[in-house]
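RETRY 2/3 - previous attempt timed out on the joint model. Re-submitting the same 600-residue input unchanged.
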Amino acid sequence: MAVIVQGPSPGSRDFALGLSKALDYNLVEAYHKTFPDGEAYVRVEAGPQEVAVVVQTFSRPQDTSFVQALLLADALRGLGFQRVVLVAPYLAYARQDKRFLPGEPVSIAVVLRSLSTAGYTDLMTIEIHKEEALTAFKGNGVSISPYEYMARQIGLDGSYIYLAPDVGALKRVERLARALGARYDYLVKKRDRITGEVTIETKHLDVRGEKVVIVDDIISTGGTVSRAAQLLLEQGARQVEVLVAHAILAGNALEKLISAGVKRVYAANTLPPHSSDLLQYIDVSPLVAERVKSILSGVE
Amino acid sequence: MAVIVQGPSPGSRDFALGLSKALDYNLVEAYHKTFPDGEAYVRVEAGPQEVAVVVQTFSRPQDTSFVQALLLADALRGLGFQRVVLVAPYLAYARQDKRFLPGEPVSIAVVLRSLSTAGYTDLMTIEIHKEEALTAFKGNGVSISPYEYMARQIGLDGSYIYLAPDVGALKRVERLARALGARYDYLVKKRDRITGEVTIETKHLDVRGEKVVIVDDIISTGGTVSRAAQLLLEQGARQVEVLVAHAILAGNALEKLISAGVKRVYAANTLPPHSSDLLQYIDVSPLVAERVKSILSGVE
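RETRY 2/3 succeeded.
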């Protein structure tokens, strides 16, 4: 029997509740506070049991969410838990997954190695940006693709064109579109030979009169998606929606998306929700629950 | 030949400069920024050399200072540095050095293990609260006691009584007082048998007419030291000064110390300075420079 431990980071509560319901495991809320000097403190009253599943998403302030996750692993190990699974619906630092320039760190590898060292035996996240990054985690690391599950919950089907914002994101869209029996494509930047103007276009398909869904893993500042949506609408798309795993929406991202004409953003509930009519959150905790069940029963 | 890398946390700059001057090593400032979503980024342009000495104190926000320290280690390892020394004048989370209650983490062990895993081969800090905590660091970990050096810089001598705020802090004061040929004691709480009133008293010595120095490792909220100072003055001490390694001074700590009648607080420059006439900072970077020289020349 396992216990779900709800971590203190914003956005973890609902996910932990969802997981606890779907799995019928007891939910324990980790006690937490901040000392007057700013240091984090956590404490868990649970056990002794064999397995703990910590739900702690890496929401802002990410560094504190990360430290709290480390502290929780050590606390649970100290209580005698043999297997400590981290469910981090959103894992920060995933985009710094290589040294783009000399002298840079591989930040996600640093984060994952620390999580192993702190005592996590298993790690489960939603869409880690680049799955290869998981090799830095010493235990069993799983990144779950939420797009097909989300699409089916929303009712997105083969009548839409699914678009990757660039060729690097094509695989993710291809997998989704094939599962839905839909057309898919990716966007490219094109420079006009005469005017020098740079525009964004679909590589193969014509979007005139079509319902389009841009699929991406993260919306941070919203710049890429907003520019893409605006151009697709100019090129005659009937409507543009966005399907995204992690809706960070930093700064004025929401305003940018709205003024670009995006009809709706569908996001997984991996981060604390923004309140906006533009956004619709899809609870992906049942999807994660299935995978937790699999790994704990030894199927994975 | 080694290079000093100045970390981005507040308070690291002056310490790195001091170290660079004392050791005559080149100083490189790590480039750093915060992404729009709040993630930290660092980059170092240096090398290839054999040894890097990173100066990064764990000032507020501590969790970000910690993450930046981890990222710097990975960046320097990626550049090919074989030996990466962390000089963290103030190391956060040092007071959570055991499980005071079941279900708590040993936070300092978590921090130290992560620093090893990230790539630091050596760690040097000022006064880690409990030296035994350093065993969690896999490499060569050193905690430097700054009190005698500070006392000699200030001119504190055998004419003062040195006091520990409690019996647990006695060793630190004993070592200092013996080096200075001074009297020392510790404070105890005493409950009046009739009134039930709790007062703080010295265990052995009479402070009437004496110049007293309270010696402690950290002043956080200032509560303990303020109460002690007030009572010592009520008991007839001529003046009360405070010698401390880490002046965190959270919240209204400074006001508390002033209204308690503390004449002066001497603090090492391990954290960003507060501006107050009450405070006098002592630059301990030359003391650390000596130890860096020793470990790099293989003496330690």
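Chain B has eight helices and 15 strands. Closing ticket.
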